[in-house]
Amino acid sequence: MHEEPIDPFNGDPADPAAGLHDPGDDAPLDPLTDVERQDVLEDLADLEIYQALLAPIGVRGLVIECEDCREPHYFDWDLLRGNLRHLLSSGRPRVHEPAYDPDPDHYVTWEYARGYADGVHDTLSEGTDGEPGADEAPADR
Fold this sequence. Notes:
Elements: H1 34-54, E1 61-65, E2 72-76, H2 77-90, E3 107-108, H3 110-126
Helix pairs in contact: 1-2, 1-3
């Protein structure tokens, strides 16, 4: 099983991108700083939580506003996870293109997912803050 999509033109002499040169290939690769690496690891952990909470209610992934092209990019859970793992291993993000005709109703932003997870956490924590009735005044008991 591959972590990333297989290149359909791999080894094909008629590869339409064969003549293109990626100038980034020549540039020395700066590894992620410890802080950047920790941020990506935290994003991966958050992604697992978001998927566990949101996939059962029909959310297919996250939408991210691209800083480069100023367009929303729709990522399903596995693709986003693969992109983050690639960033960890290579130190550089993958080249991206907007998804073809995604249904925006099936994607949420990182902020929405974070708020949803926080809301679920807060709801579950309310019953474990102390003994039942601990926050009631003595006259209320």
